[in-house]
Design goal:
The protein is an alpha/beta fold and 283 residues long. It has helices spanning 3-11, 73-79, 83-91, 99-114, 132-140, 153-163, 197-203, 221-225, 244-253, and strands at residues 22-28, 47-52, 58-62, 122-126, 145-150, 167-169, 182-188, 208-219, 240-241, 257-265, 271-278. α4 packs across α5. The chain binds zinc ion (ZN).
């Protein structure tokens, strides 16, 4: 994408709620403290965070093209050659300091209360990354079925060969084998990386069984912003950060009924919003 089109995008910023009324919240002329992403640019690094006056949603604007995040550089930049070591490190974290362990505990508690029977479930994890989530799920529910979907060839191979989880290397938006055969579909810190989170979430409807459940986890921009600019939630890899109203709007615009939305602080101290949703509403 050309710089001009990014400038245009800045002029035409439109929020998930439809509003165009934004104020500049944070501006970075170099990567925020702790932000490891490297872009091959020299003098024009500009990363800005805009806050919607109506719903409190945050949108990023960059002076450079960060679509490289989707062509395999993501794992390369974030983990380098240490993919396996990073995976081992995360799965061996003490239970109480693991975001992933807390996530899985919360999900299984909700899922066990939600589904009327305890038959094995089928799970699709979109943007599966290092696959620590499905690894932990399988440990606790070994008879369930799992599919990891990730566009990154390195991470996808890792999921299949190292973790031993069925994996599809694809951009979820380009999958076309619609089949409503999943009981549970998760987007763990994924939708903040894409330009159109509503369309991506809406696409899950084509894969969800009747009565199935979707889980979404997103950075909580509202809480993070209270601590200033140097927060992971606003790193350059994120195109958006959410508020309680904007995660609700996301779910509803994608055609889901939000059943539960919570604001939490992860063991790693990230600010997170998490939501369970379905297509039918409360039972
Ligand atoms: Zn808004």
């Amino acid at each position: 994408m050309l710089l001009e089109s990014f400038s245009d995008m800045k002029k035409n910023l439109t929020c998930i709620c439809g509003s165009c009324d934004f104020s500049l919240k944070f501006s970075y002329d170099k990567p925020a403290k702790g932000d490891k992403f490297f872009f091959p640019i020299e003098n024009n690094y500009l990363h800005e965070i805009y806050e919607c006056a109506r719903c409190g949603h945050f949108l990023a604007w960059n002076s450079f093209d960060n679509t490289v995040l989707y062509d395999g550089q993501y794992a390369q930049t974030t983990y380098g050659d240490k993919l396996k070591a990073t995976f081992d490190n995360i799965i061996n974290l003490p239970h109480e300091s693991s975001d992933n362990a807390a996530r899985v505990d919360n999900i299984l508690q909700y899922v066990d209360g939600y589904f009327p029977d305890n038959s094995p479930k089928s799970v699709m994890d979109v943007g599966s990354g290092l696959c620590v989530f499905l690894y932990q799920m399988r440990k606790l529910r070994p008879d369930w079925q799992y599919l990891a979907v990730d566009p990154d060839p390195v991470q996808s191979t890792h999921a299949r060969d190292i973790v031993g989880i069925d994996a599809v290397q694809a951009d979820f938006m380009e999958l076309d084998n619609h089949n409503n055969c999943y009981d549970f579909i998760s987007f763990n810190k994924v939708l903040e990386h894409v330009f159109d989170p509503v369309s991506m979430l809406a696409k899950a409807k084509g894969y969800l069984k009747k009565g199935g459940l979707v889980y979404v986890e997103l950075p909580d921009g509202s809480e993070a912003a209270k601590e200033g600019a140097d927060r992971q939630e606003f790193y350059v890899e994120h195109l958006s950060a959410f508020s309680m109203p904007s995660i609700t709007i996301l779910a509803e615009r994608a055609g889901f009924v939000p059943l539960s939305i919570e604001r939490i602080r992860d063991p790693s101290r990230k600010y997170t919003l998490r939501a369970f949703m379905n297509m039918e509403g409360a039972r």
